[in-house]
Design goal:
about 170 residues, mainly alpha, Serine Threonine Protein Phosphatase 5, Tetratricopeptide repeat, 9 helices, globular
Length: about 170
């Protein structure tokens, strides 16, 4: 019998720790970590990575949509920078439940980075992700409330994000 707590024995995907699950999810979508037993070769070139990601997008994979949205937003994997396409992919991923997509939409709309500033829309997306446990969104909501001089509410958001593992 192990002396470790159940979460310490579980892999990141099975853990009850939201931070471990988020890290696992981000690693999985970037191709840096794979499920145990997965022997599929990872593509080494941008075109192959793009093709593999597009296949997942075509099957309705929200995390692949989020990842591809990032690639369009930043102009990576040989893609031309295309913010409207990134927004479209992030929106679809958010509708399918991707917390990372909600965070991305919230961040760019709230700050007007690459899109017309829309603070209410940005705040809405951040709230959607924060209510489902996204630490980055919760912390960003603290920034939003701080900017609006709602210091007590900002502190509450910061405290919650710290308890969830935000550093």
């Amino acid at each position: 019998m192990s002396n470790l707590a159940p979460d310490a024995r579980a892999g990141p995907a099975e853990s009850n720790d939201p931070a471990a699950q988020t890290l696992h999810q981000r690693l999985m979508t970037s191709g840096l970590e794979r499920p145990e037993g997965d022997r599929t070769l990872l593509p080494g070139d941008d075109a192959s990575k793009l093709a593999m990601t597009q296949k997942r997008v075509d099957k309705g994979d929200a995390e692949a949509m989020q990842f591809l949205g990032d690639q369009y937003y930043y102009g990576m994997l040989g893609l031309a920078k295309d913010v409207p396409r990134a927004i479209e992919l992030w929106t679809e991923a958010a509708e399918l439940g991707s917390l990372d997509a909600h965070f991305s939409l919230g961040f760019v709309y709230y700050n007007g980075i690459g899109v017309e500033e829309d603070k209410p829309r940005g705040t809405h997306h951040l709230q959607q992700a924060a209510m489902k446990g996204d630490v980055d969104s919760r912390n960003k909501l603290g920034d939003v409330e701080y900017d609006n001089a709602n210091y007590q509410i900002a502190l509450q958001h910061y405290m919650i994000s710290a308890k969830l593992g935000y550093e």
